[in-house]
Amino acid sequence: MKYFHWLNFSNSSSLHRQTGFTLVEMSVVAAIIGFLSTALIINFSRTRIDIDQSANLIMAAVREAQTKAVSSTLYAGYNPCGYGLHYVSPTQFIIYVGQDASTVVCSSIANKNYQAGRDALLGIQSFSDPNIQFTAPFNDIFFLPPNPKTYLNNNASLNQPPITIQIRSIGGVCPQNCRTVYVYPSGKIEVQ
């Protein structure tokens, strides 16, 4: 009977020792939580930086086209009718060059939007982060020198709304994971 009592005591004390967590177990859990938290914070901030960099890329491309039009920059030895931007795909757009001003009257060109075969390509722009994309296609933006006049989808009226170019991270929800570039008929460019 004593033996049974001792065995019974041993089992109850063994159960009593296994009811809590050890310091090692708690340290491992804290380290895992800390690692995951750090990874999430770094990933979130990196996504924000990529969206901001991509919005700045678009704004710089619009300003490049505008500056080339204002300064009447020569392209391939001729003075073009202007410079513009054209949507290609969810991750690409182009900067294009208008027709040769010595062969046409630039102000009389009815369609200033990009046309393959008629307009030259100055460059194809892609987002450096493959997880960034346009939320929707945008209309062409064209700057006609020498003033310059801003054409938003072939319309130079100052009463029209701006062209909105919105980008987001794939799977992201707007407005938190989006940036919008506005190009106004006056030529003003802003990012929100």
Structural overview:
This protein has 192 residues and is an alpha+beta fold. It has one domain (45-191): minor pseudopilin epsh domain (minor pseudopilin epsh fold), CATH 3.55.40.10. The protein has 2 helices and 9 strands. The chain has helices spanning 2-17, 23-70; strands spanning 83-89, 92-97, 120-126, 132-134, 141-144, 149-152, 163-169, 178-183, 189-191. It has a 5-stranded antiparallel beta sheet, covered by helices on one side. β7 (163-169) and β8 form a beta hairpin. The longest helix has 48 residues, at 23-70. The radius of gyration is 30 Å and the shape is elongated. The termini are far apart.
Q: How many domains make up the 3D coordinates?
A: 1
| Overall CATH class | Alpha Beta
Order of secondary-structure elements: HHEEEEEEEEE
Please state the CA-atom Rg, rounded to the nearest Å: 30 Å
What's the number of extended β-strand segments?
9
Layout of SSEs?
Layout (H helix, E strand, L loop, with lengths): L1 H16 L5 H48 L12 E7 L2 E6 L22 E7 L5 E3 L6 E4 L4 E4 L10 E7 L8 E6 L5 E3 L1
Antiparallel strand pairs: 1-2, 1-5, 2-3, 4-7, 5-6, 7-8, 8-9
Can I get a quick summary?
With 192 residues, the chain is α+β, with helices and mostly antiparallel strands. The protein contains two helices and nine strands; from the N terminus they run ααβββββββββ. The chain has one domain: minor pseudopilin epsh domain (minor pseudopilin epsh fold, 3-Layer(bab) Sandwich).
